[in-house]
Amino acid sequence: MTGSQSYSGNGETKGKVAIVTGGATGIGEEAVRIFVENGAFVVIADIKDQLGHSLATSFGSDKVTYRHCDVRDENEVAETVAFTVEKYNSLDIMFSNAGIAGSYSSILDLDLKEFDNTMAINVRGVAATIKHAARVMVARKIRGSIICTASVAASFAGGAGHEYTVSKHGVLGLVRSACGELGAYGIRVNSISPYALATPMTCAALDVGPAEVEAAAYGSANLEGITLKADHIAEAALFLASDESLYISGHNLVVDGGYSAVNRWLPRIQK
């Protein structure tokens, strides 16, 4: 793992079955690795077929499978869930992680087609994964865990493009709303809100390299001495997937080193 020690829990994901959307790269890829390390069976759901297949085969085990899935297409989401249940006979964890950054254009020049596409992936896609994962969990009486990737942009504006900011606010709304209904079935629904990190998605959206993203994020962060990596977010996902978070639901786990909680204006002046 890069940047952190492996999760030290008691293997509560051992034997559990997980789907990770957007699992071929970035946060999703790290989540796949850490879920497998902790004993889970994993279906990687993504549209990056070559990368997804390569990642799945790298484990050298039938515990990991790749499945093409565009979350904009509800049928593909439903088929991926059905495939997972048929192959592994369960679905205990849905990590709804697939997303795009959208554009960084002015609101005056907002491309509504791009806006719609961002909503289709980041919000509608999350709704589809929650819907179809929950259907299986309810029908099979599985006390499952549904985890959605939000963002610090879900808590305030100005740190990302307009459509991304709106979409991540929507993810929080979905998590809280779904939590209210699915708790009656023992199903937990939570989200993770990362601060900026150098995933392929972020680097491509900003057209810069990982070192530049990390330097900019570190320079504006609150917690000194640590550079946020994708595996830090994967560790948080594992916690929410595991039995160590059995009574946590409707929670937005912010992984940002205090960035969104602290106004750094005064400390910077004092320095």
TrEMBL record:
Gene3D superfamilies: NAD(P)-binding Rossmann-like Domain. InterPro entries: NAD(P)-bd_dom_sf, Sc_DH/Rdtase_CS, SDR_fam. Coiled coil: none annotated. Belongs to the short-chain dehydrogenases/reductases (SDR) family. This is Short-chain dehydrogenase reductase 3b-like.
